[in-house]
Write a structure and sequence with these properties.
It is built from 18 helices and no strands. The mean pLDDT is 85.
Length: 326
């Protein structure tokens, strides 16, 4: 992941890529660039040509970008095939050099965690592979581990890992830093520490806006506890619309991979606002707390919750909690 592993000043992303030597690394950096800007069609096109590259690092980078791009454009079978290829590479490369095994583990773990799938059986522990990664990829790997801890509801440990990564200079690498800050929002919203959550969201936004790197905001919408509606929508309404468009496209593909593997029917009939309200309600927020957070009336909150209960075919708020948090 050459772009992810590149340090640059916000606003200088495309300029940095243009200075790279012509060849596969530059092309894959452009594939990353298009993906993180919310242009999955161009990203998939750029990455596809390197799916059989002889260089393992570049091939796996292309596979990861291609798989996630195809989720957003509805090419689910292509995404599924490439994700299986990533898993098989991890098994095949057991006897290869340590650096190659490290890259395999990083890519395989990222693919599994970001899709909320079980980790591959053969994956080494984080302590084994993270120290060997270059700093930019190490920062993103720490985000992946923090995201995994979030899914385990270990919010304090997750945020501790994130804050440590940021303190050690992860902000020099804007793409991993954006994802780290978004994971911090997830944790702090789960802990009901709204001021800290908003602070991390705004830092992520200031890192992303100059280069239009908005993909991560769309990917994480459902986990951000309505923070996009509360903070981004009022000040940047057009950007918010684009983020929500990314959310719908990515989530539709995500569910088609996630649901069959896990057997969990993640909600697919809710609007993004209904999902945000339902998730907050499931986490124990009162209607008045949700209303204040989203700057809407308590009656509007009540209507959103009623619609969520109706659409998900659950009986009451208690059942909604079990559905949303399973």
């Amino acid at each position: 992941m050459p772009l992810m592993n590149t340090s640059f000043q916000p606003g200088e992303c495309k300029k940095i890529i243009s200075k790279m030597k012509e060849g596969a690394r530059k092309d894959i950096a452009y594939a990353e660039y298009y993906y993180f800007r919310g242009n999955p069609q161009m990203s998939a096109q750029m990455a596809k040509q390197y799916l059989t590259c002889s260089n393992t690092e570049l091939r796996l980078s292309a596979c990861l970008i291609y798989a996630f791009s195809n989720l957003s454009i509805g090419q689910i079978e292509q995404a599924r095939q490439v994700l299986e290829k990533i898993k098989s590479t991890l098994k095949e490369d057991k006897e290869r050099a340590q650096q190659i095994k490290v890259i395999d583990a990083f890519i395989a773990m990222a693919a599994a965690v970001l899709l909320h799938l079980p980790l591959p059986e053969d994956i080494p522990s984080m302590q084994e592979f993270i120290p060997i990664l270059p700093f930019g990829l190490r920062s993103f790997a720490l985000y992946v581990e923090a995201h995994y801890l979030y899914l385990q509801k270990n919010y304090e440990k997750s945020i501790g890992m994130i804050e440590a990564a940021l303190a050690m200079g992860a902000n020099q690498y804007p793409i991993p830093a954006i994802y780290l800050h978004l994971a911090a929002v997830m944790d702090y919203m789960s802990l009901k520490q709204l001021e800290k959550a908003e602070n991390h969201l705004l830092i992520a936004w200031e890192l992303a806006r100059p280069d239009d790197l908005i993909e991560g905001f769309g990917e994480h919408h459902g986990l951000l506890g309505g923070m996009l509606e509360a903070v981004i929508k009022p000040k940047w309404p057009e950007d918010f619309k684009r983020i929500i468009s990314i959310t719908y496209e990515f989530s539709a593909g995500w569910r088609k991979i996630h649901n069959p593997v896990t057997g969990h029917e993640v909600a697919d009939d809710l609007s993004t606002t209904e999902f945000a309200v339902a998730m907050l309600a499931a986490r124990g927020w009162t209607n008045s707390e949700i209303a204040k957070h989203l700057n809407i009336s308590s009656n509007t909150v009540k209507n959103h919750i009623s619609q969520a209960i109706k659409k998900l075919h659950v009986e009451n708020r208690k059942a909604l909690k079990q559905y949303m948090l399973k």
